[in-house]
Write a structure and sequence with these properties.
The chain has 345 residues and is α+β, with helices and mostly antiparallel strands. Helix content is 19%, strand content 34%. Strands 1, 2, 3, 4, 5, 6, 7 and 8 form an eight-stranded mixed β-sheet that branches. It has a six-stranded antiparallel β-barrel with strand order 9-10-15-14-11-16.
């Protein structure tokens, strides 16, 4: 009789433990990843109006007779693609040890390429220098004493640069009677600047903060026991970039497009933009002299380039190379290498 009682006690204890495990699993299941920022609450579902079967539907009343109005034709504006370079971001975080700047550069390059609005330019290690908006000459891309010449040196309309100003990972663990849970949270702050490549001036600046969280649970030794997840870095950085990417693209779209005359050969004029840029045969381009750069005598910073005189107009007649065009003269004379071309409206 004692042996039977002891066996019954063990059976009861097993049932209690099984019940506890079930409750723990139902309350501590693996939490899906949470990536910031949080989304806004969803809109309520629309309600279809109830129509009674016996309801009588009145025929529509014809409109008063009058002159037929044709719908207005849509306004189509075609803008050539700007030439943009994304410079390797500075990694100011103690955590990243310098590797996070390259990750942000890759993410931004991918997002800008996906937009289809820009030509992404890479010219080797020169583009990995960090630009200073107060003195672009310090970067090595702009020559000292001449103001901002990066647009002329690299053939760019805009340069995107910035820094990873903050990055960190927090870990939170909890141990229960029959299991344990672990949560890892990565948070990143990215500062971005857009520099007008022809003047060296910062025309856009913004910051974004992103958060990514992942959790794991173990019960009775069953479940994932995660170590450090390196993908947290990229996911938090991507969440930070998503905070400002739309505004950045809109601001760069507003930068005026311009190209340059690359060669003049009697009746033919070659320019440094073609089909890849978005030009088509028949596009008319206004031609301006190179102009003169004006430098502030106090700050020694470029105030921009004073427009040169308008020389005339050319029209695109063909394409060659990776992204270049052949044009013929429509009006004017005295065209020269480095003259500025702009799309005629």
């Amino acid at each position: 009789m004692k042996k039977a009682g002891f066996s019954g006690s063990r059976t009861g204890m097993a049932i209690v433990l099984a019940g506890l495990a079930g409750l723990f699993l139902s309350g501590c299941a693996t939490t899906p990843p949470v990536t910031g920022p949080s989304s806004s609450p969803s809109a309520p579902a629309s309600v279809m109006p109830k129509v009674e079967p016996s309801a009588k539907v009145e025929p529509p009343v014809p409109a008063a007779a009058g002159p037929k109005v044709e719908p207005a034709a849509p306004i189509v504006t075609r803008v050539p693609k700007k030439r943009v370079a994304v410079v390797k971001f500075e990694d100011k975080s103690a955590y990243g040890r310098g590797r996070l700047g390259g990750a942000v550069q890759d993410i931004l390059t991918t997002e800008l390429a996906k937009s289809g609005l820009f030509i992404l330019v890479s010219r080797g290690d020169d583009l990995n220098l960090v630009l200073d908006e107060q003195d672009l000459g310090m970067s090595g891309i702009v020559k000292e004493g001449t103001g901002a010449k990066s647009g002329e040196v690299l053939g760019l309309n805009a340069i995107v640069t910035g820094a990873v100003s903050q990055f960190g990972v927090k870990q939170k663990s909890a141990t229960y009677l029959i299991g344990a849970s672990k949560t890892q949270t990565a948070e990143a702050t990215v500062d971005v600047r857009v520099v007008d490549a022809t003047t060296g001036r910062v025309i856009f600046a913004e910051s974004g903060t992103g958060v990514h969280e992942e959790s794991s649970t173990q019960v009775l030794g069953i479940g994932g026991a995660k170590g450090y997840d390196e993908t947290l870095e990229g996911k938090a950085l991507r969440a930070a970039v998503s905070q400002f990417i739309d505004n950045l693209i809109r601001r760069m779209e507003a930068i005026p497009w311009s190209g340059k005359i690359a060669a003049v050969d009697e009746a033919e004029i070659a320019i440094n933009a073609g089909q890849k840029t978005g030009l088509v045969i028949g596009d008319r381009l206004r031609v301006f002299g190179e102009g003169r750069e004006v430098v502030d005598p106090d700050t020694k910073l470029s105030l921009g380039r004073k427009p040169g005189r308008e020389k005339g107009e050319i029209v695109v007649s063909g394409f060659f190379g990776e992204d270049a065009a052949i044009c013929r003269r429509v009006s004017g004379e005295g065209f020269a290498v480095n003259d500025i071309v702009k799309l005629a409206r």
